[in-house]
Amino acid sequence: MSNTERTGATEPAGHTQETRPGPAGSAGGAGDPERPGRPQSAGSAGGTGGPEPAGQPDERGEPGSVESQEATGQGLSTAPYQEPDDSVTLPALGAVGWVRWFWRQLTSMRVALLLLFLLSLGAVPGSLIPQNNVDDTKVRAFMEAHETLGPVYDKLQLFDVYSSVWFSAIYILLFVSLIGCIVPRTWQFAGQLRSRPPGAPRRLTRLPAYATWRTTATPDEARAAALRMLRKRRFRSHVAGDAVAAEKGYLREAGNLLFHVALIVMLVAFACGQLFRSEGGKLIVEGEGYGFANTLTQYDDFRSGSLFGLDALEPFSFELKQFTGTYETSGPQRGTPRTFEADIRYSEGGGPEKKAVIRVNEPLRIGDAKVYLISHGYAPVVTVRDGRGKVVSSEPVPLLPIDANVTSTGVLKVMDGYRDAKGEKKQLGFPLFFVPTFAGKGQGQMFSQFPGLAFPALNLSAYHGDLRVDSGIPQNVYQLDTSKMTPFKDGNDEIFKKTLLPGETITLPDGAGTVTFEKEIREWAGFQVSQQPGNGWALAGSVAALAGLIGSLFVQRRRVWVRAVAGEDGVTVVEMAGLGRSESAKLPEELAELAAELHAVAPTAPEPEAPAAGADTDQAVPAEGAKQ
Questions:
Q1: Which pLDDT belongs to residue 523?
Q2: 476 DSSP 8-state letter
Q3: pLDDT tens column, 36-48
Q4: Closest Cα partner for 526 from 309, 333, 283?
Q5: What is the pLDDT of residue 127?
Q6: pLDDT exceeding 70 applies to what percent of the chain?
Q7: How many CA atoms lie within 13 A of 463 on its CB side?
């Protein structure tokens, strides 16, 4: 016989089709002993006669009427027989039953997918709507711009999505669902790893991939060769009866479990990052005397999680020695930033001073804290003197950029030490408008032409009165409250305004003093100090989830059996079959490779010689056949 290989989608081994007695009129329904007396369709398979003539007696011996024939016809059907419904009343579930039902629903795959979808859907407003824990100013601006929609969003907690009740509920339910799904599957997978692959089915021909041939090797030799071959290919294999059972692809389930465990790690990391996080911003001017210590009072703004304690702040301090910013000076990308570097000196817990350079996306790591460079701007030095020439203020004034060319605005407030020409104590306020590269007078509005300090200019106006800093109401240091202040007037009875170049001085009206724009222009840098303990775990979880997903998608779990038995003529018959735990088009190819490798060790047996032409065939009949 020649080698034969067959592959096809057939019914798995061990599956038997149950044959139940059908109603009369169906195939094999004649003479059903379990339901005697049921009407049988004339001419059906298994029937005993042709069409029944009209008017013949029915089962009860009465002549068949039209009504009886119609009633009999209603019972004729080729549908499978169904037992009559006795209206069985099921017992009530009870409290334990309902809890069990709810747990099964919660840990099901469809509910887990639904919760994942809801979690991703709930994160959408957190990305589109300003959040309180990210930018309070934008939230207030949104509330002012949308007087009707803003309160609705606030009640729905859309300004605090990730700490809202509904987002937390989805988060916790998903966490519980994953735990309830992983634990039993882990124990089941551990049991599979401890057990051996199952023995070969009785009929290997029913499996999707199948191959067979006759060989000169003995059954023991064929099984030993198959065992060596499968173990060499990293199959878990053993001899079970007359066949070798092997299985491979356990990494598929391991990857699936790893993916789910990684999701849990990511959820826990996300929760820890929200509960124990802290994040604060600080603007620091370069030069001596302007530094930062990592305490709550030193921050310009500070946000933290609900479980964060102030004692968790890392003890360190630093000063900004110099900020360096360079820009493209020509070409279509003129003004594009090239270098942003903050040269700092820092110390940890009162230890020795260290040097460091912080760049964009290159934070300084101090313990669990990271110091990021997030912004920069200019702080022109402005000196204010009263009418007697006494210096009442001389300091760099940080101004906030309003465009890409660092056109900046701010306020200089003189709160103490100033007296007017009459000797009365007053407070001064100067709205400032600064451009690092001035286009010159008559060149349109005063906006910067370049972000670098090529031609700096400072425009200011002046107010006197009460700054309301002692009212107890918090104020924005970059805005001026003029409700209790009076502007200085020029000779045309208009608000006093002047544009100064570095080194120039203006005199305030009515002998109120002078204001000097010093030649020294410092730069400032904005830093963000953040502590998020879950970031490392979140990164590890995401990498593990990706690895587990790759394993669960690309690893095929499959089983292979090799049976070797002696045929009726004493020649060994080898059968090989494969079964995949999921659909895979590569299973027949892999089985063909295994069959070719095993065939090299257990080759095909030669076919028996055909009898010579004209020979007496009766002599080839065995003795037993002759006796018969």
A1: 95
A2: -
A3: 333 333 333 334 3
A4: 283
A5: 87
A6: 80
A7: 20
CB 414 within 8 A of CB 392: yes
CB 377 within 8 A of CB 400: yes
Classify residue 56 as exposed, middle or buried by CB count within 10 Å of its CB (0-12, 13-18, 19+). exposed
Residues 6+ apart with CB under 8 A from 180: 103, 106, 107
* 209-215 vs 572-580, strand pairing mode: antiparallel
Provide the residue type at 342 as one letter: A
Let me know: does 47 contact 30? Beta carbons within 8 Å: yes
- pLDDT higher than threshold 90 for residue 393: yes
**CA pair distance 412, 480, nearest whole angstrom:** 9
Q: What is the pTM of this model?
A: 0.64
Strands laid side by side in the 354-359 sheet: 291-293, 316-327, 337-348, 354-359
Nearest to residue 509, comparing CAs of 529, 493, 527? 493
On average, the pLDDT of the chain sits at 81
The SS3 assignment for 254 reads helix
Gyration radius (Cα) of the chain, Å:
45
Angle subtended by helix axes 587-601 and 219-232, to nearest 10: 130
Q: Furthest-apart CA pair in the chain: how many Å?
A: 149
CA dist 149 and 147 (Å) reads 6
Three-state SS string over 72-130 comes to HHHCCCCCCCCCCCCCCCCCCCHHHHHHHHHHHHHCCHHHHHHHHHHHHHHHHHHHHCC
Q: What is the 3-state secondary structure (H, E, C) of 287-328?
A: CCCCEEECCHHHCCEEEECCCCCHHHCCCEEEEEEEEEEEEC
Q: Where are the alpha helices (DSSP H) in 469-620?
A: 535-554, 587-601
∠ CA 117-121-123, nearest 5°, is 120
Q: Closest Cα to residue 185, out of 245, 115, 264?
A: 264
